[in-house]
Amino acid sequence: MHRESTFLKRLADLSPAKQALLEKRLRDERQQEGDRTTDIPRRAQEEAAPLSFTQQRLWFMQQWEPESAVYNEVVAIRLSRAASCGGADASCARDHAPPRCAA
Known about the structure:
Layout: H1 2-13, H2 16-36, H3 53-64, H4 81-84, H5 90-95
């Protein structure tokens, strides 16, 4: 709000010639921006809006188990190095470098 009031005060302090020049520059800028941007076409009201991936997943979970809130459950899984390599497969651990972290 403070910026806007400062801007309006500075605008009022400009001479009429400078106000006209500023308005022309702003108008030209808006016109150039309008040339660069393309509007997203409006969807017809008759057609249904497509569901997002998350909405599709929630719909699927609701169809699969209607009385469940499984989509709200949190599950944490701790992976050990052996599990991330597909079990006790030593060749996997030998062939792949360990993960590195930035220090």
